[in-house]
Amino acid sequence: MLVSTVGFVGYVLLAACETVGVRYFGVFLAAAGIFPSIANILPWVLNNQGSDTRRGTGIVILNLIGQSGPLLGTNVFPKAEAPRYIKGMWISAAFTLFTGFLALCLRTLLVWENKKLDLKHGSKLELQAGADMDPQRIPTGVGEENYGPSFRYVL
Question: Which residue from 76, 93, 74, 101 is spatially nearest to 13, judged by alpha carbons?
Fold first, then answer.
């Protein structure tokens, strides 16, 4: 959420300000908000899938949605609005803020899902403590990568 907010501020500066120095600073803020989000979403999608098939499907869906950006970009940055592209900057600011909101919602959902898994199987600490006391309690048959008792979503 923090990096999305930084990117949002950058795009707002690009859309609202005319001073070259302030807009240049906005470019750095926008880049600082966008690129870490991309780097964070790839492992988040992959590590929260319980099987190789789901990982593969997740990365395909992510790439299909992610590659729609250039299609949108060609329409929100028309040549007629050069050189400031105010409409495109405001749309980018809105999408950056929306991305932060979605990340916050997803994190909240994953915390809730992890709590449900803790109630169902016991926390990871409880599972480890039980396995240390009684080796027979080590979960077998279902691996962690397949939504076994020790699987938890990555926050």
Answer: 93
pLDDT, tens digit (0-9, with 9 covering 90-100), for 77-124 = 989 999 999 999 999 999 999 999 999 999 999 999 999 988 888 887
Cβ atoms of 7 and 117 within 8 Å: the answer is no
pTM score over 0.70:
yes
Inter-residue contact 8 to 93 (CB < 8 Å): yes
φ, ψ of residue 77 in degrees (nearest 5): -120, 65
Q: Which residue has the tokens 């080590």?
A: 138
In the structure encoding, which two tokens stand for residue 6, read together? 């930084």
User: In the prediction, which pLDDT does 133 show?
Assistant: 55
Q: Residues 6 or more apart from 36 whose CB is under 8 A from it?
A: 3
User: How far is 120 from 112, CA to CA, in rounded Å?
Assistant: 13
Q: How far apart are CA 99 and CA 33, in angstroms?
A: 11
Q: What whole-number distance in Å separates Cα of residue 92 and Cα of residue 4? A: 11
